[in-house]
Amino acid sequence: MIKFVVFALAISAVHCQYGGYQKEQAPEYKEQDYYAPAHYNFDYAVHDEHTGDIKSQKEQREGDRTDGEYTLVEPDGTLRVVKYYVDGKSGFVAEVHREPGKYKPAPEPAYKKQEPSYYKPRPSYQKAEPSYYKPQPSYEKAEPSYYKPQPSYQKAEPSYYKPQPFYNKPEPSYYKPQPKYY
Known about the structure:
Blueprint lengths: L1 H16 L21 E10 L4 E10 L2 E9 L5 E9 L4 E8 L83
Antiparallel strand pairs: 1-2, 2-3, 3-4, 4-5
């Protein structure tokens, strides 16, 4: 039974170490062609009668050719329509049209500019009232202190340890140099 528990713990430890990794979970690498011509369609619209914010835009692109149109309601109530295109290196070409009176003018802002105030407040001076309070010194005689610290003497204990000198005695050498004859 103990062998089975130890074996189950070992398997769960290995499983936790690798986080239950399975090959199907690995992200796949997809190579993108960054030099392919661009293709997209885009549009959005806002229609808020309360604030007068009414606008829309549409755009599509295929390769180097981009066509688009946007509209917006100006503050006086006219509708501005702009149609544009970009073709290769020719640049941005736009046609602007205005359609009058199609919408009501935008409401005035809720805040109003504050008019300047010419009122200058005058400083108010108040004469200080005299103070009749005079603090009185408080004399309290200090009580004498009868505590006198006593010196603490401790008699040194004699040391019975006497260090002995340490000599390195040479070990006996059994080698005797022989005289040299030349």
